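Researcher: For the annotation table, I need structure tokens for Protein kinase domain-containing protein. Please keep the output clean. Sequence:
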Amino acid sequence: MIKLGYPRFLLSGYIFLSLLGIWVVATAVVPAGHRPGCPAKCGDVDIPFPFGIGDQCAFHPGFGLDCTAVDGVKKPFAGTVEVTKISLTNGTATMNTAISRQCYVPATGTTNYSNGWLNLTNTPFWISEVDNTVIVIGCNTLAYMISSSGYVPIVLNWKIALQTCKEVRNESSYACVSSHSVCVDSTTHNPGYRCNCSDGYQGNPYIANGCRDIDECRRLANPCGDGICKNTPGNYSCSCHTGNYMTNGVCVPTQKKPSRFQAMPVIGASVGLVVLVIAVACACLIQERRKLRNMKLAYFRQHGGTILFEEMKSQQCNAFKIFSEEELQQATNRFSEKQVIGRGGHGTVYKGLLKSNVEVAVKRCMTIDEQHKKEFGKEMLILAQVNHRNVVKLLGCCLEVEVPMLVYEFVPNGTLFDLIHNNNHGWRISLATRLGIAHDSAEALSYLHSGASTPILHGDVKSSNILLDNNHKAKVSDFGASILAPTDESQFVTLVQGTCGYLDPEYMQTCQLTDKSDVYSFGVVLLELLTCKKPFNLDALGQEKSLSMMFMSAMKENRLEVMLDDGIKDEDNMEILEEIAELAKHCLEMSGENRPSMKEVAEKLDRLRKVMHHPWVQQNPEEMESLLGEPRAMAHSTIVSDQYFSIEKKAVTNLQSGR
């Protein structure tokens, strides 16, 4: 389908049109009005103002028409073009325009020419692109407009002046003189305006009082349907006859309302039902809350919360706090997975933010040993009194849940395990940094064993329980884990307290946790710092899976350098590395009695650290020996080595079999 914005008529020739502009308007028909004393018609065509017969009857000469008799019939002309219809509302004038043609006459062998120019320059008219359309269906189709008179109709738009409504409103030449008239700006690229009557009015807006109210109630179709229509200025209103009421613009019969006494039982029953439902819902809610409160209170008492509270009052312990479950849920965003910063055999650790804007680490334990439940509160108070720069501070706990939750201070820089084994940035960890971390950790364990008011055994010393701050200062966490360790979950857990690879072989035999068990586990941490190898490797084929067994074998065969991490191999450091390796070897002795105490380990590491800070000492053997102290007797090492390997292998075999 081809739609043309203005007519192109073809009848053995061409039409040439000079365009002034294009204007789109709506279509409607309203009664015409004219200036007093001027003809209202020319023949059968209404001539509404601003048009007029003669310039004196028009708004301005551009709207002046001639009324001329053609074959005895009067017709209006705009210049030489016949006007057949004028619409004020549309702002259009329909005219008959001559066809420009070039026709060949075979009889005479000549060509007749006829020019049908329509020159609209300096006129208020332009061709309407809305009302002049030719629709042609099909491809490669040629359309013909056939007219025996030699003329075709064309619709022109018009406007009053080349000014906008805003510009002309206060001028004497303003054309919208009727009350209830509105000014409409032209939508073409050239400025201009027309006038229309306001909604609810019709007539001629260009003459005084030309816009008259439309009486909608006198139309053939009552706009109120079966109702009563009342005309109002510019509008109408509807009402209903007695016994009816209006709904959605339609009158419907009024239902007889039941008497107040008849409605009372229905109202009473409805209100009673609503009250009953609300009462039952409230009762259920109160019962659930009471049940939850009683359950929380039972857990609190079960975990020794009452005793803990009394002890805190008597000791005036303000640094330790008993948290509610709701407080920790808010701090961790309802224990969101996004807040998880660690998972372990005993539980999951979440990062949290308290209302006081303090960052904390919240540990949700998986299970709790039944025999420790009643003493749990007391034990928490003992752990809360631990105060050492290298020990993660226990800030509080939550006892109103099935398994208690612990709240620790937050240490921002991850774990030693991550630094050694998950070093994705390729950072080189210097020997001084490793020695400093080892010394800090040893100081913390020494404090727990002998410096705290009540000796505390860690029970799960490993690199993932050693946290680091932004300066690589170490803080031991998860101390007292043996208190929370499950004892009835499986036979394997009953036998083993700790983590595979760090387990004390002597504990594997006796199931007795001692301070020397922590020493053994710390020896494995020393090996991790020296070798950057994991303590236990189940994927290793054809070689030892236990790092401690590999190390003891290397020491026995004098192959220490093979075990060391390439990042710290240095001839200047070899003597210190050998001292650290010898210390680790003592910590890994089979018999706990032959292992040093954590205090001795911390002192030894402190002396080595001082040697690192004063390198000139290494070049003075006497000063070096004085600083490091007398070496421990090693006579027993060879004797127990075979026993060590046999029992260690047995322990590994048991671990692999799931015991």
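Researcher: And a one-line annotation?
Model: The chain has 17 helices and 31 strands.
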